[in-house]
Amino acid sequence: MRRPLGRPRLAAVLIAALLTATACSPGDGPDQDKGGADTTYRKGTLRVLASSELADMRGVLDQAEQRTGVTVRATWTGTLDAAELIASGGADGKYDAVWLSSNDYLRLHPGAAKRLTNETPVMSSPVALGVKASAVDRLGWQPDQVTWSQVHQAVAAGKLTYGMTDPVRSNSGFSALISVASGLSGAQSALTDADVRRAAPKLKEFFTGQKLTSGSSGWLATAYTRRGSVDALVNYESVLLSMNRDSDTGLTVIRPKDGVVTADYPFTLLTSAPREAREAGQALTAYLRGPEAQRALTEQTFRRPVVPSVRPAAGLATDKRRELPFPGTRSVADGLLDSYENQLRRPSRTVYVLDTSGSMKGERLSRLKTALAGLTGTDDSPTGDRFRDREEVTLMPFGSEVKRIRTHTVDPADPAAALDAIRADAKSLTASGDTAIYSSLRDAYAHLGAGGRDAFTSIVLMTDGENTTGASAGAFDSFYAALPPAQRATPVFPILFGDSDRAELEHIAALTGGQLFDATGGQESLDGAFEEIRGYQ
User: Fold this and answer.
1) Disulfide-capable partner of 269 in 43, 281, 285, 371 (CB 3.0 to 4.6 Å)?
2) Under the phi-then-psi rule, with left for phi > 0, alpha for psi from -120 to 50, and beta for the rest, what region is 451?
């Protein structure tokens, strides 16, 4: 049995260079911090560790700055990662406040409560299901009467597919997981281990319908629009309604009748913050809970106001839904996450296309080996910190051509065998040759083939240079365009490293529907890039 969720290595990455992979965020928010936390407090500027989905609050916070003189300098992160950082003390002195979609998971951490003060809910948004109108008609659903059991039945019958963010890295995914587990277990109070065990068979059936996964709501929305083959998305109501407005997706937004988990977005000051920062935070939250800001945030973001005198934006249904309780203990929450990662969800199938050309010799290759070894974890690695059970991992090092192809599948009965083999393969990497990026990517698609295995497939490209031999960019574009649709659905996630050509890698990501990750900030950022990609696999 693996120990509960806790990510000390990732906490170190966050402290050193939190989210240098700026392409992972949904966009630059107000005064976004792209290079890690500032250890010096500046009067009038709040250093805030914030859920990445709050980037859409740019307009409201710009308005707040005009009214209060308080500037928010946000560093985007996932809710669960932030909880680890705060509980460990890693946020002390580096941030003045934390603004997550929920503090529920944070409250389960020993020692976290003493680091928080002045917790002020600002708005709310429940987990919901956004379904194509054609699927609603096909299923004969009445949107205001749908239950989680009906959704499960549709999925189990092969009549509904959907996308959802990774619960280990995204609170929308975690909240969705809790909502589904509560709904399918029949739990009348906070989930228990017995509830999770009882619901496990239905949960496993439910997650066969998950065809898209993501580390962020922004990329999930983009992938949904690009592929067009998925019937629904599980996400916050506000995200789904914003998609309808911004992309004309025409989703029918359903809040299951048997209950949902709701994010309340508490702006929370840290006890370690300077007195002036705490005063600035109080001024900011007072404004955000005022009628002007409440009207702006519901109209601009489709979140629900917390002030009764302010009406929710048009499109927000006013009928009530039961609020499903968060698990009462950390062991239940972590056990649910572990079950999802290693038993319930579809397995992953990933090809790591690794530049081992001559320019990687020395420190660069050493850093790559360290990052790969980190993903193999240890016997007690926490959930999300190592390759998952049932995961197929292929290492494809290349120089002037692909040097070798090694594939390992993590057997739940003996995960150490595959993890040790991957670690040994990483250790044996050597640097030589030129840089054949496009030829090697072509070989990766050929290795994955036309599919056949029910898995999340992806390609990770790590290179320290630009293409110097083999197929050209144009030849690869033509190759990709000629692939069958099922193969074109496999994204490439390039990692910007060393002297690699950003424009070249951005093109590969855009072409294939992937995402660019930035690892130019040293070993910590390379470790962080590899770990962040896990949410997309």
Assistant:
1) 281
2) left
Predicted confidence at residue 382, as pLDDT, reads 63
The domain made up of 125-262+324-338 has a fold known as D-Maltodextrin-Binding Protein; domain 2 (3.40.190)
Class of domain 8-123+264-305: alpha beta
Provide the whole-model pTM.
Answer: 0.88
**Sheet (strand 348-355) strand order:** 406-409, 392-398, 348-355, 456-463, 492-496, 517-518
CATH class of 347-536: alpha beta
Give the number of C-alpha atoms closer than 13 A to the C-alpha of residue 118, restricted to the C-beta side: 21
pLDDT number for residue 170: 84
In the predicted structure, residue 322 carries a pLDDT above the cut 70? yes
Question: Rounded distance, CA 166 to CA 514, Å?
Answer: 16
**SS3 (DSSP) at 353:** strand
> Rounded to whole angstroms, how far apart are CA atoms 411 and 433?
34
Angle between helical axes of 8-17 and 523-533 (0-180°, round to 10): 120
Predicted confidence (pLDDT) per residue in 489-526, tens digit? 999 999 998 889 999 999 999 999 999 999 988 888 88
Domains 8-123+264-305 and 347-536 share a fold: no
Residue 328 · residue 100 · CB < 8 Å: no
Kindly list the domain boundaries of the chain, sorted by start residue.
Answer: 8-123+264-305, 125-262+324-338, 347-536
